[in-house]
Model the fold of this input.
Amino acid sequence: MKQPSLMRTVRYAQSWKRGPSGIESTQVMISRDGVEIPATFVAPVDAPPRLTTWIAIGGVSRKGRFHPQLVRFTEALASTGVGVLVPGLPEWRELSVCPRVTLPTVRASVEYLNSRHDVVPHHFGVIGFSFGGVSAVLAASQEELADDVQGAVLFGGYCCLERTLSCMLTGRHEWNDQDHLLEPDPYGRWVVASNYLTRVPGYEDASDVAHAVCKLASEASGLRISAWEPYHDPMIRELRETIAPRRQPLFDILATPTTEPRPDAAACRAFAKELADTCRSIEPMLDPAVCLHDVRVPTQIIHGRGDRLVPFTEGMRLMEKLPTSAQRGVTITRMFNHSKDHVPASPVHHAYEAGILFHALHKLVNTV
Done:
C-alpha cells in the first residue's frame, strides 16, 4: 500500500521536472446553470477502467485554463494515474473578480464527472489556485456537494482581504507579532482596483484610473510578463498622462514605475481599508475570513514563502481560521511561489526545501 502511494508522488515530481508522457488532454463542454462552458479533461493514456478525478480551479488570468503553469501542473498530476478536469471560467479570463461563479462551476464539474463512465463517481478532490483557491474550497464545502468532494488543496490563497490588499500596496505583512517585508507584485492590486475602484465612496468618478490599471493587468497577464518588471514602466508613465491631474496621486498608489519610490505607506494602508470595505459590501466572499467556519472538507494549503502577490502569512492565517476538522496542514516552501520561483541558492537548503515540498505533494496526490 505504501509503495504505490510513494510511487505516485515520484511520478508527479518526475513529470513536473521532465515533462509528461502518456498524457491525453480532451476539450469538453460542461453545463453551468444551463450555459455551456469549455473545460479540459486530462488523463493518462493507459488509464484504469475508472479514474479518481480532481477538479482544478485556476486563478484570474487572461490565459485561463491554458495558463502554462496550470497546464504543467495538471499534466504532472494526471501522470500519477488520475484524471483532472479544468473548467474554464470566462469571467476570470476577462479579469472580473467574481467569486460567486465558483460554486456553479464546481457543481457543473461534479455533474459532468458523475455522468462519465470512466471516472469513480462521487469521489472527487478540488484544487484551487490563487484567487480561485479559497472560493473553490468554500464551494466544495456546500451541503449539496458533501457527498461528492472528499478533500481540497489550495495553492496560495488568502484569509483577510484588507491585510492582503495592504500588503499588495506596501509589501508589509506579519504573523505572530513578527513583521515581514517583500517587494509586492502589483498585478493583484491592479485587478482588484479595476473591478471595484469606482464603487469606493469618493472615487465614483475615477473610471480613468480603473481603466488604466485594467490595461496594465491585461497586458501583464496576456504577455505573461510579471507586473513588477521594468518592461511595464513606459506604459505606466503613458497611462498616467491620461489621468485627470487631481487623480494622479491615486494612480500612483496603484502603479508606480520601478525606478520611482512607492507612495506613503500610511496612505496606501488607508486606501487598502477603503477598497476592502467596498469589496466586502459588494462581494462578501472576497473576504473569506467570515465564511471559513463553513468549510467542511479536509483542506491542505501549500504556499510559497517568497510569494510577492499574496504573502505566505495569509496561508498560515487561513489554515488557523479553518475548523479543526478541516485542517489537513499548511506547507510553506521556498521551492515555488505565486508569482515566480525563488529556489534556495544553497544546495543544502535546496535539498531541505525539496524534502518539504515532496512531503506536501505526497499528501496532495493521495488526498482522494
